[in-house]
Design a protein that fits this description.
By secondary structure, this protein is α+β, with helices and mostly antiparallel strands. It has two domains: 109 residues, 3-Layer(aba) Sandwich (GIY-YIG endonuclease); 62 residues, no CATH class. It has five helices and eight strands, in the order E-H-E-E-H-H-E-H-E-E-E-H-E. The strands form two sheets. It has a four-stranded antiparallel β-sheet, with helices on both faces. The mean pLDDT is 88.
Length: 202
């Protein structure tokens, strides 16, 4: 297992050899926040943190939590594991199935706050955390010259239920694209399954 910090990653100060590692984990002391798997764990963690993202709205859920809690989150730990570290596979040369099983075992073991799959009882977020917004207020007016009311639906991670939820609101705008732009501006990320359907002609 290799351990570093969020700050070291953001400052590009991590230079360990991670080539055999496939599982990564974000933690704040004893609180495990997220477990993931990737062929290139460093690249995937950098994507989470927005280091390699083309746009800020591409930062993932765990990345948004990190940025919402800076500077405290600079000290959060990021750990990289081989499948062998996870003690899931008896073989030193593993395959895709072993990696999947190792990830699932780590999720079941640590009960991370953010993971949904294979995680029946996620650990609650510490009460002192700043939780990013995920819910858009109803009745947003995107511009003074709006022409339509749009029925907007989208899916986003809810920090309180710790599940992905669907939301339906009304937004007033000149086009679906204007609705999406306003949503991204408010939430700081691009919602999944975003749909804006013209409802009422004003």
């Amino acid at each position: 297992m290799i351990q570093t910090t969020v700050q070291a990653l953001l400052l590009d100060a991590f230079h360990e050899n991670y080539s055999c590692h496939r599982i990564y984990l974000f933690r704040d002391g004893k609180t495990v926040l997220y477990v993931g798997r990737s062929y290139n764990v460093l690249s995937r963690v950098q994507e989470h943190l927005g280091i390699k993202a083309r746009y800020k709205e591409e930062i993932t859920t765990v990345g948004r939590l990190v940025h919402a809690n800076i500077p405290n989150s600079n000290k959060w730990q990021v750990e990289f594991y081989t499948v062998w570290d996870c003690e899931q596979s008896p073989f030193r040369h593993w395959n895709q199935a072993d990696e999947d099983e190792a990830e699932q075992m780590m999720i079941r073991k640590f009960k991370p706050c953010i993971n949904i799959d294979h995680n029946l009882y996620p650990t609650p977020f510490p009460p002192h955390y700043n939780l990013p917004p995920s819910i858009l207020p109803d009745g947003i007016v995107c511009s003074s010259g709006y022409r339509y009311a749009y029925c907007v639906s989208y899916k986003a991670y809810d920090w309180y239920t710790q599940q992905n939820e669907f939301y339906i609101i009304t937004m007033y705008a000149g086009s679906p694209g204007e609705c999406l732009k306003a949503a991204v501006t408010i939430l700081k990320f691009k919602p999944q399954a975003f749909s804006a359907v013209s409802d009422i002609r004003s």
